[in-house]
Amino acid sequence: DQNVSLVFPALEDIHEALAAERDINGDSSYDDAIAAVEEAILGSRSAYDAALQGEVTSDQLEQAADDFFAGSSASLLDSQTGSTGSGSAGSTDPTSLTENEKNVVYLAALQQFYDATQSSAAKQLIGSLSQKQMNLGNPLVFRQVEDPSSEYIPASALAQAGGLRYVWNQNKSQGTLAQGSKYYTFAAYSDLVQKGRTESSFDQMAKAAKLQGDTLYIPEDYAQSTFGMQAQYLTGTSYAVVLNEELAALAESLCSQFLSI
Length: 261
Prior knowledge:
alpha+beta, 261 residues, 11 strands, 48% helix, 8 helices, elongated, five-stranded antiparallel sheet
C-alpha cells in the first residue's frame, strides 16, 4: 500500500525530531507526543513491511472476502455452475451461502492464494480461521487423514456438502451414502464399494477407505468422480475442507479477487 509506505517513514522522522528537541532543550512537554508517535510506529510496522514487499495484508484479504460475500464482487462470477447433490448452496450468488459454506469458500480461496503467492498473511488467516471453524463444529471442515500419499474426505462431510443421506453402521465399520435411489456402501480398509442395496454390483476404488477414530474416510478421487466433491487441504494445519462443484467455483472467484488486490 503506497500510503503506508509513505506514512511510516514520516512517523519515524517526526519521532526523531521530537526526541531531538526534548534531549537538546530538556523539554519534557514532548513526552506525550513522542509516546503517541512511538505507538503509531509500532502499530504500523507489519503493514509497512508488507507494503515494501508488495505483500497483501490480512486486513486487505478480510475486506476483499467481506465485499465478496456481500455481493460487491459478483461481477467476477462469469458463469452459473450447477451443484452436485441438493446442498443448501443452490446458487453461485455468494450472498446465498450459509455461514459454514462462506467460511469454507474463504478457507479454500485463502489456500489457493497462498499456493500462488506464498503469502504469510494468507497462511496466518488459514491457521486461525480453520481452528475456529473446527471449534465451532463446521461439518464441512475436517481433520486430515493420516496418510501423506493421498487425500481423503470423511463420508459424513460428503453428505453435508452434497445433500446426501449418510448412515454409519459401527458394528460393521460400514458407511452408506444415498443419492436419490442410488446407494453406495463403503467398508473400512476395503477398496470395494457396494452399489445398491444388494451385493450384486460393486465399484473398485484406487485406494481403500480408511477409518480414523469413528470417522470413515473416502479417497478423494472416488468422491470427485462419483459425487463431484473435492478436498482442499490447508497449509500449516491438520485440517481440510470439502467443496462441491459450486463452492469450488466460488473459491476460485474469491481467489481471483485476492490476486487483484
